[in-house]
Design brief:
This protein is an alpha+beta fold and 369 residues long. The chain has 2 domains: 202 residues, FAD/NAD(P)-binding domain; 144 residues, D-Amino Acid Oxidase, subunit A, domain 2 (D-Amino Acid Oxidase, Chain A, domain 2), CATH 3.30.9. 30% of the residues lie in helices and 28% in strands. The protein is built from 10 helices and 20 strands. Strands 6-7-5-15-16-17-14-18 form an 8-stranded mixed β-sheet, sandwiched between helices. Strands 9-2-1-13-20-19 form a 6-stranded mixed β-sheet, with helices on one face. The protein is globular and about 65 Å long.
């Protein structure tokens, strides 16, 4: 029989970690203040696109994202089988489109180092670009095509993870309002607002944007900040956009249900998740320059979620030096959906002490202290 692991937080990272630990025979309990997947996880556009999103250099964060992309095909099949639920997983490929010749050179530079990491990158332009996406503005002169990049429908993926956990014996306590870590140095004990006490052998902290609230508890600097991301969606039943499309201003993700997701405008608003006219205007003011037909369309849905950003852009993943039974898995910013498989597997490996995943060296949770 495995250990009893308490997972603090029921977002996509907490659910994925619980799912993987449960598969390996551990007893797992998730403690969630609100509802599972109710913040950044369920609000995400669901992109699995490390080549498009990371254009600077192949650091450990890029390695994390790339490894997770390549885990996803098998991972999503396992989640579907365990949950008995289906959700959209589309290997659509992506187009990173540009307007100027100078930007084409930047794409070529990006392609040169990404090729070393197995990217099937292809620079396309002219008639070929119009054939792939006929509705793109003629002002866009070229795009880098990444056939490997994919996306999932995030709300259904998160729901499937939660269902898989519940069906397979993970205990989930949600809507607890508050959860306090009362003991962690020698043993693990947490208490909810209604005075329920939860004990276990291990604690995995997956608190997302709320992680900084634990700084005093653990005596650590935990610089994780909530960044509000606002997104809109268009009803396009003709389904005539086929790829994820990136530009310097944002992205578009076509979904199988006939909607086009357009994001994201970001701002710092504390823990507010309201949608603002200004935030959505940042999207609607430029998106018609990518897809001119949006000029006559109005978004049918707008929403916002909180993204847990760290001070250096790397998530916090790893054991605490002074208490190896406490593991952090938080601060994934815009990449929680993408990084859910690799984070879950890395955390489970740490608990099983089976191996150490190399890129975690840059993700030490105590690196700011």
């Amino acid at each position: 029989m495995g250990e009893h692991v308490l997972v603090l937080g029921g977002g996509v990272i907490g659910l994925a970690t619980a799912f993987e630990l449960n598969k390996r025979g551990h007893q797992v309990t998730i403690l969630e203040k609100n509802v599972c997947g109710g913040q950044a996880s369920g609000a995400a556009a669901g992109m699995l696109a490390p080549f498009s999103e990371i254009g600077e250099d192949p650091d450990d964060f890029f390695q994390l994202c790339l490894d997770s992309l390549r885990l996803f095909k098998r991972w999503q099949q396992e989640v579907k089988a365990a949950s008995k639920l289906d959700f959209e997983y589309s290997e659509s490929g992506s187009l990173h489109a540009v307007y100027h010749e100078a930007d084409v050179l930047a794409l070529e530079t990006r392609k040169s180092w990404q090729k070393e990491w197995g990217a099937e990158a292809e620079l396309i332009s002219g008639n070929r670009l119009r054939q792939m996406e006929p509705l793109l503005s003629k002002d866009l002169i070229a795009a880098m095509y990444y056939p490997e990049e994919s996306h999932v429908f995030a709300p259904d993926y998160v729901k499937a993870l939660e269902t898989a956990c519940r069906l397979n014996g993970v205990i989930i306590h949600d809507q607890l309002e508050t959860v306090e870590v009362v003991e962690w140095q020698e043993r693990v004990a947490l208490k909810s607002k209604d005075n329920q006490t939860f004990t276990g052998d291990r604690l995995v902290v997956c608190s997302g944007a709320w992680s900084s609230e634990l700084q005093d508890t653990f005596g650590l600097r935990i610089p994780v900040y909530p960044i509000r991301g606002q997104i809109c969606a268009y009803d396009l039943p003709e389904n005539d956009i086929k790829h994820i499309v990136y530009t310097s201003q944002g992205y578009f993700v076509p979904k199988a249900n006939g909607t086009l997701v357009n994001g994201a405008s970001e701002d710092i608003a504390g823990f507010r998740t309201d949608v603002t006219e200004k935030g959505i205007a940042r999207l609607t003011n430029w998106n018609k320059k990518v897809f001119p037909h949006l000029e006559t369309r109005t978004p049918f849905h707008t929403w916002a979620g909180l993204r847990p950003a760290t001070q250096d852009g790397f998530p916090l993943i790893g054991k605490l030096d002074q208490a190896s039974h406490v593991i952090f898995a938080t601060g994934h910013y815009r990449n929680g959906i993408l990084l859910s498989p690799v984070t879950a597997i890395a955390v489970a490996d740490l608990i099983d002490e089976s191996k150490i995943y190399g890129p975690l060296a840059s993700c030490r949770p105590e690196r700011f202290s």
